[in-house]
């Protein structure tokens, strides 16, 4: 009984940003729990590698190469994703960008592109798949928030604004879609510092990483596998009575 709470057999997951970093790791974890996973990102080559890695371990995986920042065309993505394994039961909005610019260098294009991918895409893609979730009576939406949802970091004005929005968007999505026993939940994961493509510049300086590790309670920065358990939990029946929440997975950074 307990094990079944965390199994995803027969479920279909769509994961954006699934070609690398946290998104790739979340897609791998969902497949290991039994879900059929549609990997979405812009790079066809990277997607093929991610899908191959899942299939090598016996998982079910396919991909759709798509620019999720094109929020006016996300209905096309939803249709292509559903052509792989059927209607989407689990949506993971992991695609994101962090321009890391001082305020003087933030242009209208940088601002709009960041908001479109980090904040707009999670809503407008969810809008496409929620009707199917409502029809089936079950669905899971997981957004990616950040330490910058609640903290201000240097050169993080645009990214911080978008991730603060994700935290509130998650609450609003839950209020919109979790009512009346719909079976849909919407939550967010807020990672601390993990070595990914977005944070690679930080990891070039060992002194910076040691300083960041000291800010945690655990004394280290994260590895992508640290997110596996929470991903499966929020995507599985085990979390059916949790919605509208942002869960920080940061080694105790925000508790210190």
From TrEMBL:
This is 2-deoxy-D-gluconate 3-dehydrogenase. InterPro entries: NAD(P)-bd_dom_sf, Sc_DH/Rdtase_CS, SDR, SDR_fam. Transmembrane segments: none annotated. GO terms for biological process: monocarboxylic acid metabolic process. PANTHER family: 3-OXOACYL-(ACYL-CARRIER-PROTEIN) REDUCTASE, 3-OXOACYL-[ACYL-CARRIER-PROTEIN] REDUCTASE FABG. Belongs to the short-chain dehydrogenases/reductases (SDR) family.
């Amino acid at each position: 009984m307990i094990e079944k709470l965390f199994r995803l057999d027969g479920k279909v997951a769509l994961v954006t940003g699934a070609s690398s970093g946290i998104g790739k790791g979340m897609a791998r974890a969902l497949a290991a729990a039994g879900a059929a996973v549609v990997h979405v990102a812009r790079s066809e080559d990277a997607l093929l590698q991610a899908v191959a890695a899942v299939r090598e371990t016996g998982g079910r995986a396919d991909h759709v190469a798509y620019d999720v920042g094109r929020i006016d065309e996300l209905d096309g993505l939803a249709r292509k994703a559903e052509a792989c394994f059927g209607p989407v039961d689990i949506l993971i909005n992991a695609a994101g960008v962090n321009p890391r610019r001082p305020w003087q260098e933030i242009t209208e294009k940088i601002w709009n592109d960041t908001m479109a991918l980090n904040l707009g895409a999670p809503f407008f893609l969810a809008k496409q798949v929620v009707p199917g979730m409502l029809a089936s009576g079950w669905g899971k939406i997981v957004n990616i928030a950040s330490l910058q949802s609640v903290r201000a970091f240097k050169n993080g004005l645009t990214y911080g604004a978008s991730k603060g929005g994700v935290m509130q968007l998650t609450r609003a999505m839950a209020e919109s879609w979790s009512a009346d026993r719909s079976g849909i939940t919407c939550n967010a994961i807020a990672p601390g510092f993990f070595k990914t493509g977005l944070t690679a510049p930080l990891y070039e300086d060992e002194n910076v990483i040691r300083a960041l590790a000291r800010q945690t309670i655990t004394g280290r920065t994260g590895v992508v596998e640290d997110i596996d358990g929470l991903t499966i939990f929020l995507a599985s029946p085990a979390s059916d009575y949790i919605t509208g929440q942002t869960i920080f997975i940061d080694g105790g950074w925000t508790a210190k």
